[in-house]
Every structure is written in C-alpha cells, then in structure tokens.
Amino acid sequence: MTFLNILILAVIQGLAELLPVSSSAHVIMAEKILGLDPSAPDMTLLLVMLHTGTMFAVIVHFWKSWRDTYFSSGAAFKRNALHIILATMMTGVVGLTLQHIIKVFYAGNASTFEIESLFSNSKLIASGLVAAGILIIVSSRIKESHATNLSPFQSLTIGIVQGLCLPFRGFSRSGATISTALSLGVARKTAEEFSFALAVVLTPVVIIKEVVRVFHDNAATHASLTLSSILLPSLLGMVFSFIAGLLALRWLAGWLEHGKWHLFGGYCIFAACVVLWIG
C-alpha cells in the first residue's frame, strides 16, 4: 500500500464519514478503483485507524457545544446521558436482530457467515444510498423546529434508525439519524450534536470489533503484522482522516444551518447511480 493510497483513503474516509453520504460506500468504491483488497489485514487495520481519526475529529469539533449543552449542569448531564443510553440500546437491539435475521434467511444460518461479506455488494450499497438520500430530502422539507430537548420517544426512534444503518453499507448513519431527528421536530443544531454524540459512543465498539477481526484473521492465516508495514501507515492515515474530518464537520454545519441539507440527499442518489455503474 503506497503513501498515495493511504492519503486518498484517509481523505475519503474523513470527509465521507462525517458527511451524510456514507463513508463505507465511498471507501469500498475507492478500494475497488485502486485495486486494493478490503479484507486484507493491513486494509482492515487501516480502516479501523481511519475511524479513530474521525472520532477524535468529532470530539474536537463538538467539545465546546457539548460542554455548554451536555455538561452545563448535573441535571443536564443526566438527562442527555439517558437519551444517549436509550438510543444506543435500541441501536444494539435492532442492529443485532437484523444481523441475525440476515444470517438465518440469507446465509442459511451458516456458522462462518460474517455480515462484512455483504459490504461490497454494489446493489445493497446503492439501495442504502438511495434510502438515505430520500430521507435527507424529505426531512429538509419539514419546517425547522426550535425544540432543543429530546423526548425519550425521539431518542428511541433515532436509535432504531441508527440500528437499521449498521448492517447496510450506503445507508448513511449520520444522514439517517440527523434526518430522523429533524423529522421528529428536533432543532437542527441539537439533531447534529446528538447524532455525533451517538457516533462517539458507537465508534469505540466498532473499532474494538474490527481490531479483534484483524488479529483473528492474522492468527488464522499465520500472517505477521509488523510495525513498519501495517501500524505506521495506519497511524499516518489516522492523522489525515482527523484533518479531513474537521473540514467535513465545518462543511456539514454550514450546509445544515443554512438550508442546504437537501443537497446531501441529491448527492446520495447521484452516488448510488455511480456505484451501480462502477459495479
């Protein structure tokens, strides 16, 4: 894997992870174009580190607003923590249930089946992009609310939608959760803050899961993960994705707050057509 490959994937991941356009769809297509194997240990670890970079970008970007909103008082912290816990619990229930259903009915309950085997399916990716695009466009047509506090029902609903995103690449997590919040009457800034607070909670779980997969696959194939060939390029990618992530968040905030949210929906539908064309 060359320095240019790392830079390209890091920039794509950093921008697309934090914009409502599905980072996985873009990264998978970029890997195909670059002739890289997404299942290779070095690629898997690189993507884990890219996710880590974007998670730190989210924390840096939102820290001041989270401090003013979520940590303004003990009561505010407890209230917002409850909403995050409710949403995350529903995400886990829905996501794991969906994965089990897919395993049983799609893979015949095969013990060797992993949900990651579906991630390069172009038709599924395109379908997810179209679904996210439609949801973004519909939510952009709803009159903006000034409600800054979420209800338990709104948190649970957002969590359910986030769970639906987990097994399907192309169905943008941030696009779906922000759009759902907007559709439920949540203010745009609050919807954005809550969506990425959920991401910070969810991302470490994904990172740990992927790291375990890397070392499990490494042990099974008797490959050797050397510092120079895998870890250092991954750390470099993390730095690039962090920088790209900060730029993406500024872009997202500007478009969301200035009535350009629907443009992301249009892009998702366009991207779906490109995915089908590339195959």
From TrEMBL:
Asked if Metal-binding is a keyword of the record, the answer is no
Q: Which GO terms describe its cellular component?
A: plasma membrane
For this UniProt entry, what is the primary localization, expressed as one broad class? membrane
Q: Which reaction does it catalyse?
A: di-trans,octa-cis-undecaprenyl diphosphate + H2O = di-trans,octa-cis-undecaprenyl phosphate + phosphate + H(+)
Q: What class of enzyme is it?
A: hydrolase
Transmembrane residue ranges = 43-63, 84-106, 118-138, 194-215, 227-249, 261-278
Give the subcellular location: Cell membrane
What InterPro entries does the record point to? UppP
For this UniProt record, the keywords arranged alphabetically read as follows:
Antibiotic resistance, Cell membrane, Cell shape, Cell wall biogenesis/degradation, Hydrolase, Membrane, Peptidoglycan synthesis, Transmembrane, Transmembrane helix
What biological function has been recorded for the protein in this entry? Catalyzes the dephosphorylation of undecaprenyl diphosphate (UPP). Confers resistance to bacitracin.
The family note in this entry says:
Belongs to the UppP family.
Q: What else is known?
A: Bacitracin is thought to be involved in the inhibition of peptidoglycan synthesis by sequestering undecaprenyl diphosphate, thereby reducing the pool of lipid carrier available.
Protein's name in the database = Undecaprenyl-diphosphatase
The organism encoding this protein is Rouxiella badensis
Q: Which gene encodes it?
A: uppP
